[in-house]
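Appendix B. Raw example, untouched.
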Amino acid sequence: MAMKIVLNSKFFADDSVEQLGEKSIELGYDGIDICVRPGHPIRADNVMEALPKAVKVWEGQGLVCPLATAAVDMINPKAPDAEKLYIACAEAGVPRLKIGFWKFNEGDDYWQVLDAARTALEGFVGFSEKHGVQTCYQIHSGSCVGSNCAGLMHLIKGFEPRHVGAYPDFGHMALDGEDWAMGLSMIQEYLSVVGIKDALYIPQTAGRTPPYIPCFVKVGEGCVNWHRCLGALRHLDFDGPLTVHTEYRFDESIICQVGYADASPPNLEQWAKEDVAYLRRMLSELENG
């Protein structure tokens, strides 16, 4: 099994390309899930030149870059920068691009929202076919299309798996109440990359409703059964990347926001290091157990 554990760069926007690589090594990661977003070293306005150069730097540092992550509002294939991201990934040798999230607003007709999302996804698939970079869509709990594996299959079923990749996230699956093994079985044909988060419910201030709200925590301190989840991936012979999002102690208002400001979590580097160590320990136990 050759799962690589990579660091999502959303909270490391102030680091240069070289510094990000050095930090990833220091923290114990195999590579980088690079966010191509405003305020980051690699953005839509420089991605054509910056991404290929960055990947060469990281390769020289012994790191992989199996995934680029676009802004959360990148959901229109006709947007001026959309195809540039695919061209840059192809030039850099980055095989996957995660696009943004389609949202459901209360009162919408779900099936109309879904039809519009599938039409837009078809446009991104055209870029995948043209440039050989897979379009990935991440599960996100709450009012997002694809809030769990069942919803994700509404969106991607029927598309060619080499062009569209499923991106489950165990923390979000826990919050929306879907069984991990069942969910992975639903999407196994499309399974491409896995998001690593852990979550639980914490009590609100007395008298507030509901009395418990969701919160992200360190890997191994929430309600995700990591032995079972990683075991399910091994059962499916999954060998794609695990991307650690380093989201800690964020409450429901931020979890549900989708694309919150990149305010650094507490103890970011210490906990990011402990997350990857925990995952490696679990994988080792599964391998040897």
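End of appendix B.
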